[in-house]
Structure formats: C-alpha cells, structure tokens
Design brief:
The protein is α+β, with helices and mostly antiparallel strands and about 850 residues long. The protein is about 30% helix and about 25% strand. The strands form ten sheets. Strands 26-29-30-34-33-32-31 form a seven-stranded mixed beta sheet. It has a five-stranded antiparallel beta sheet with strand order 5-4-3-6-9. Helix 13 packs across helix 15 (about 505-515). It is elongated, with a radius of gyration of 40 Å. The N and C termini lie far apart (about 85 Å). About 40% of the residues are buried. The mean pLDDT is about 90.
C-alpha cells in the first residue's frame, strides 16, 4: 500500500487536523510507520521528478509548414523559464504533434534542460533540449499523461481543466507534488486493521503515534444521510445470502458524462499506484483509497438489458449456479466456484462480490446512468474466491481484512456528492440499504460492545505507570470514546474499528499509541531452575545419529499429503483428518503414518541414479482410529525406515530386503540395550500403519519376551509396488520411539564383558518346513538362559537358513553360540554338552534333528 505524505497534509489542512505528520523528520516517521503498519519497502521522492514542469497556456496553434500532423504552438509561461528563445510578446515556440492541441488550452510544458518525469528513475533519463523538428525549432515539449507518469494515455497532451492556475505556475505546486514522498508499505498481513488500508486510517495512526488529536472529516460519521428521490431510475435488490453479505447499499444516478477525471484526481491516484480510467471509476477508486471501503459502479442501462423485457434494474446477491460463467472487467471469463458471492440480475451474473465487476455492465464513454454500490462482504469467502480464481485486486486486499459495515452510508454519501460536483450527475431514484446487521450493533454504532478494563490491568501488562486519564487521552486521540470511573475504563471503539473486543485489545492499543519503543527495558523475573530434560527429544536425536552413522539418509517430508497417496498404499482416507483450507490440492490430509511419504520418494531417487539407499524419517502422525466423539486428536510419534535397491543392483545383493531392514532395527534396539521378537502377523491388519505392508511377508515387532508391540516390519503389497513404481527389493519398518523410550528406561544396567576367552560353537537343526524361525530361535534362547552355567555371558546369532528348492517339508537352521565365563575358561566339552541338551530339547519340542 502506498501512502503520500502530501495527501495526508492536504487533508489535515482541509479539515484542520492538528500537527504535521513528520515533525521530527522523515526517518523518525518511517521508523514508526514500519513498526505499526508494516515493513517499509520503498521511499519514493515523487516531487523531485516534477521540479522542471510548468503549467502554460497555448496562445496560438498553427499547422506545421512541413508536416501534416505537427503543429507550431506559441505558449505563455509567464516568463518563468530561463534560457529559452522568446518572440516579441515573450512567448515560447513549441512544436507539438498531439491531435488535441489547440489555442486556449492549459497544459504542462517541459522546458529545455528538464527531464521527462516518466523516465526520471531510468538508468538513462530522457533530458529535453531545443531542437528543430522538420525545420522548425521546438523548445522542449508539451506532455501527455504518460510522459508525466500519471496515466497510460499517450494519444494526446494532458488538458488541465483548472483555468485558475496562472501560466508559469510550477506543476509540482499546482498539484501538490512539491516535497511529496510516497511510502510503499507491505501491510497486507495486518488482517485486524482494515482501517489502515485507507488514507484516513493511516493519517489517524500517524497522529495517534505522535500523541496528536485526530478528527475525522464531518462526512465520515454515522450521522451521514443520503437524500434520495422518486426519480426515473429504479433499483431492486434481492439478497439471498445475508449471512455472507450483511449490508448491500445501492443508489441510481443519471445525467452522467463519462470523461477523463480532473487532473488533480489523476495525480492523486497515480502517485498511490492506481491507473486513472475515467471520472466515475476514478472517484470510486479514490474513496476506496481514502477510506478503505471499496465501491463499484454499474452502467444502469446495461444492467436493465441483462433481463429480457425488464423496465428497471434488479440486482440479486446469490451464489452461482452450476455451469454459470461470467466475463470479468479484465477480459477473463471464469466459471466461479459454487460458494462464491455473486452479483447478478434475474437472468445473468454481472459481478463477483468483493472481487471484481463484470465486463457486461462496466461504465464506459457511452454511459449515461449508473448504479453506485457500497457493500460489505464476508472476508473469508472473498479470500477463498480470490485464491480459487487467481484474482487479486485492490478490493480483495481490503475486503479480505474485514471492512466495517457501519461506514457504508458515509462513504457512499461522500462519493455521491463528488459525482454531483465533478461529473454533474444527479440522484435519480431511491436508495436501497439491504441491512442485516444486528440491532445492537446499529444501536451502539460500533461493531463490538464497549470493553471494560482497569488501569492496573493495562499497566501490569505494559510495565508502565500511566494514569487513567493518560490512557484515555491516547485512545481519544484516535477517536475512541472513553469514560473513566475511578480506575476503571470503559472503552468504545469507533465504528470503523472491528478488532477491539477484549481487554487485551485495549492493552495493545495503549501500548502502540504510547510507543512500544518507550516501554521500560527490564528483564522479567524468572526461575533459574534448569529445564527438565526431554527424554523423548534426546532419544529421537540419538536415533537420527545412529541411523545416519549406519548409512541411512534422513528426510523431512510434509505432514500433509494428497488423498491419492492413501489410495495407492491402501489406507482409508476416512480415518484421516482433512484440512478444510488446504493451501494446495497436494496437501489435503494429515498423514496417518510415515511409510507412504518415504515410499513416495523411492522411485524418484532410483530414477535420479541412486541404485541403493536407505531413507528414514522421525516425525508425528495423526489418525482417527479409536478417537471418540468430543475427544481431541492424538499426535503419534513415529520412526519409519525404507530400504530400497534398483532391480539391477538387487541381483548383486545377498538376502532379502526384509533382513536388511531388520538389521537396522536390531542395531537400534541393541544400541538401546533392548532385544526384539519378530512374530508373524497371521492375518491382514486394519491399522492404517499396517496398510502398505504385505502381511504374508511382514512381522509384528515386540519387546523380547513381552506382549508390548513396538511396530511393524516387512515388505510391501504388490499393489503398492505397482502404484508407486517401487523396485522388488524394497522393505522397511515403522515403530514407535515412545515405546522404545519406555522400554529403554527399564533396560538392564551395563554389565562388563567376561575377561576370559569366549568359546564359539555352531549348531544346525533340521526342522519341518512350516516351523517359523522365530519360534525355534526363542525356544533355543530360552533353553540356553535356563541351562547355561552360572556366571556366564552368551549370544546366539543365526548363521544360515537353508531349504532346498524342491523340498518344502523341511529346512535347516544354523545358530552360532558365543559363550564366556566370568570365573574361568570354559572347555569345548562343556559347550558341546550344552548344545547337546539344546538339540535334545528341540527334538522333544519340534522333532528337530541335529546335523
């Protein structure tokens, strides 16, 4: 948003506001503006570019003797320009090719040696001189709006309509450019201050932060009234969505002559970044920039023509019907979203409420009758419609901040007054005020009820010691109504403020107006007790380090996913939390587990040339499983890992991907002093975490000897491999770090290894083909724990599982036992007797044969 300091000064003088907006210098002012209204992006000294421009009068205009389209003009500059050749009457000769140049015009002249304003900031500015054009000397040039930088028109010179301006007057002085500075501020993020999107609001803020009394113009008040009439033009309004459009005010006007705006209006608009169009549109834009309230003008006759056989204008405020389309002012045709606020006639759409008007009812050079609209639209609906269609207008910027509906009549009344004065139009029908505001809002004249707070409450939060009267004066400076009773303040926000609802809002207001930079710089008292250790956070950091050291690569993916990913991995999206205002179609749902996000990255990495890799992520997940009505969602901690290799690389790798993934999980468990059991799933699981896994080739992960489920490990279903283009060599696990933490807390303390030599012996058992490895391993481990000699330490590791391709009724499993004593060196005979006992027990239990 651009702010002109001269614009503010102009209104201060016109309405006798106190103070100057920059009494302490521009740098101080900018610091305060940046702190209160948003970051200052650029400071533009616009006045400098017009230093050499003069207002002159064309005394004579004759055809050029050597060119059909050129004219030789004599101009009166009041003798102000120096160093130029003049005739006996003191007039200056200028050659001009503009089709509208003629005797008697008041225009802008660039003398020799001056810079064309539109090129002022260019790397190579265009500096004029005296030079012959087709044999006739031209001293400088008469300028168009485009060359002056106040419009896009280059077809003719700018015609200055104020004949009271004396020839030779500086253009900068005539149109209040002298010393003007435009401040470009990025304040689009301040949704709670819609008033600061108008020049009145900015001026009020500047006065307030400098402890100056501010008084709004008399017309900007709740007491403003619009005089209507039973004229020839009738407008009917039907509001089908009052919950989205609480107020919709329109009035018809006739005797309209559309033409370029007065130059003063064009100069104000252009320096604030708005392109002048015509007098009607420019006035609606001007009052939008002044008050923050957007307005719109329709061509009355075009509105009537949209309804076949209609004798008056009908405006319907509604949502669009499926398939309806509208041609917008920017020439783009859209099919509006079905929840958009639309302005229509009985038969056709003519505008997108709060966003942009329609091209079929725009005001143009042939317009004779208009309808002025000043409405209030739901900020959230406007924002969604703007995002959905990529329409970002000045109206959207203001409406999606929540403009006050109480200012509509005041703004419309002032606009009507200027249309009468500048355009010559007249009110030609009844005012229609479709008002659905609550009665209490209308009665008190404020969007929010008065806020009652105390002096102590405000001072305690700001660290100040202001009196009640000092606080009240700060608020009254920006037109709050404040009553004081002892140390209690009753604060009523003015009608344009929509953000003062609780005592904390008053605290913020007082603090801002007093100056946050003036608050005492004292550190608050704090407890120096060390913050308790977050054991889960430490565990996750250790997990990351361990896996990274083992060669795995950590990734961090979005917590939100597309619903299609759920379909690809077999998860039920009804169990996921859906985002109501997703930033993108790819980010619609909270993910229910981490594994799908990892699997989604496998194909792209293989395609990028990585033949073998391990990915893991530690993050949070959410789902509705087990969630009862009224309960808040649970945030689950998860650790997921995926091992993958391209089909070509997999041919060179030993073993299945499952065991590679298990190696990483066993490594983690061993690092935390834990041992795990891997038990078959038995049947398909309904848990969303288990959805991607092939339950025939997966296992549940449990703490050794307990029923505590840690997570799942395994390979993935064929449908998942196909949907995500995964290689055959692909497996992984997803476990709970919280379970690992709880188990780690109760893990056995460190015990030193025996200092005596260990003895290693292998034992190979031949068992039936359908006996799970885990069942045999747990049995052997349990027998060793029970029967091994006292004061010994042992480990049992699988060495080989062999099953001939043509045999399914048996397999051979080989274990390696490492055992050592803390008291002496064990003999081979002792270990052999222990393994003989293991083999005998396995034979009794499973019919196993030792080989």
């Amino acid at each position: 948003m651009k702010v002109s300091l001269n614009h503010i000064r102009y209104y201060q003088q016109k309405y006798q506001w106190s103070g100057d907006p920059a009494p302490n210098g521009l740098s101080d002012l900018l610091a305060k503006i940046g702190a209160q209204l948003g970051a200052v992006e650029e400071v533009i000294p616009v006045g400098e570019r017009y230093d050499g421009v003069l207002v002159v009068r064309v005394i004579s205009c004759e055809d050029h003797p050597n060119a059909d389209r050129l004219h030789v003009c004599k101009i009166d500059d009041g003798g102000k320009a120096e160093g130029v050749e003049r005739d006996e009457n003191g007039h200056v000769q200028v050659v001009c090719g503009a089709p509208n140049v003629r005797e008697g015009l008041t225009v802008a002249w660039l003398p020799p040696g001056s810079t064309v304003p539109s090129t002022y900031n260019d790397e190579d500015p265009f500096v004029l001189d005296s030079r012959p054009l087709r044999g006739v000397v031209s001293n400088g040039m008469l300028t168009s709006p485009k060359e002056l930088g106040i419009g896009d028109s280059h077809e003719g010179i700018l015609e200055i309509d104020d004949e009271s301006i004396e020839p030779g007057t500086s253009f900068a002085d005539a149109f209040n450019y002298r010393g003007d500075v435009v401040i470009d501020m990025e304040n689009k993020m301040f949704t709670h201050r819609p008033d600061c999107f108008g020049m009145l609001g900015v001026a009020r803020e500047l006065a307030g932060i400098q402890a100056q009394q501010f008084k709004s113009p008399d017309w900007y008040s709740l007491g403003e009234h619009i005089e209507d009439t039973d004229g020839p033009l009738k407008v009917e309004v039907k509001n089908d969505i009052p919950e989205l459009v609480p107020r919709f005010v329109v009035i018809p006007m006739n005797n309209i002559t559309v033409k370029p705006s007065p130059v003063w209006l064009q100069t104000w608009l252009s320096r604030l970044g708005v392109r002048p169009i015509n007098n009607i549109v420019d006035l609606t834009n001007y009052f939008m920039l002044l008050t923050g309230q957007p307005l719109h003008a329709y061509d009355y006759d075009k509105v009537v023509a949209q309804d076949a056989g209609a004798d008056h204008a009908t405006i319907v405020v509604r949502k669009p019907k499926p398939g309806e389309k509208i041609l917008l002012l920017n020439g783009k045709e859209i099919e509006p979203r079905l929840e958009a606020i639309m302005i229509a006639t009985n038969d056709k759409l003519i505008g997108v409420g709060g966003v942009m008007g329609g091209g079929d009812t725009e005001v143009d050079d042939n317009t004779k009758n208009i309808i002025l609209e000043c409405a209030n639209f739901d900020m959230y609906s406007v924002r969604r419609t703007s995002m959905a269609h990529g329409l970002f207008t000045d109206a959207v910027t203001r409406f999606n901040k929540g403009q006050s509906p109480l200012q509509n009549i005041a703004v419309l009344s002032r606009t009507i007054n200027d249309v009468k004065e500048i355009v010559g139009g007249q009110v030609a029908g009844r005012l229609v005020d479709d008002n659905h505001l609550p009665a209490e809002v209308v009665e008190r004249g404020s969007v929010e009820a008065p806020v009652v707070t105390t002096r102590a409450f405000i001072n305690s939060r700001l660290g100040l010691d202001l009196s009640s009267e000092e606080m009240a004066q700060l608020l009254r400076n920006v037109e709050f109504a404040v009553t004081i009773e002892s140390d209690t303040l009753s604060v009523q926000a003015p009608f344009w403020r929509t953000d003062i609802a609780i005592p904390e809002d008053v605290v913020e207001e007082v603090g801002r107006l007093y100056g946050f930079d003036h608050l005492p710089q004292e550190l608050p008292k704090r407890d120096l007790t060390p913050t308790p250790r977050d054991e889960l956070l430490e565990l996750k950091a250790e997990v990351r380090d361990l896996l990274a050291d083992a060669g795995a690569n950590e990734i961090l993916s979005y917590s939100f996913v597309h619903g299609n990913l759920f379909d690809k991995v077999g998860q039920d999206k009804n169990l996921a939390f859906q985002i109501s205002n997703a930033l993108s179609p790819d980010l619609q749902y909270y993910r229910m587990s981490l594994t799908p996000s990892l699997l989604e990255k496998v194909h792209m990495n293989i395609k990028a040339g990585f033949d073998e890799f391990v990915l893991f992520e530690v993050n949070k997940t959410h789902h509705k499983v087990g969630l009862k009505a009224g309960e808040l969602p649970t945030e689950y901690e998860s650790l997921a890992l995926v091992v993958a290799a391209s089909d070509k690389k997999a041919q060179t790798l030993a073993g299945a991907a499952f065991y590679r993934a298990r190696t990483y999980l066993d490594y983690l468990a061993k690092s935390f002093g834990l041992e795990l059991d891997y038990l078959p799933l038995g049947e398909a699981q309904t848990d969303p975490v288990a959805a991607p896994f092939d339950y025939h080739r997966s296992a549940g992960v449990y703490l050794r000897g307990t029923d505590t489920l840690v997570g799942l490990i395994g390979e993935y279903r064929q449908s998942v491999l196909k949907a995500l283009k995964l290689p055959v060599y692909c497996a992984g696990f997803e476990v709970s770090p919280e379970v690992l933490l709880d188990a780690r807390t109760f893990a056995q303390n460190y015990k030193p290894l025996p200092r005596f030599p260990k003895v290693e012996q292998d034992i190979c058992l031949r068992v039936r083909g359908d006996l799970p490895y885990q069942e045999l391993a747990r049995f052997v481990e349990g027998h060793l724990d029970t029967n091994r000699p006292d004061q010994t330490h042992h480990t049992l590791e699988p060495i080989d599982i062999y099953q001939p391709e043509d045999q399914t009724n048996y397999k051979q499993i080989t274990f390696r036992l490492s055992i050592a004593s803390y008291e002496r060196t064990l003999t081979d005979d002792e270990v052999n007797r222990l393994l003989d006992a293991v083999a005998a027990a396995a034979h009794d239990q499973f019919g196993a044969e030792r080989i």
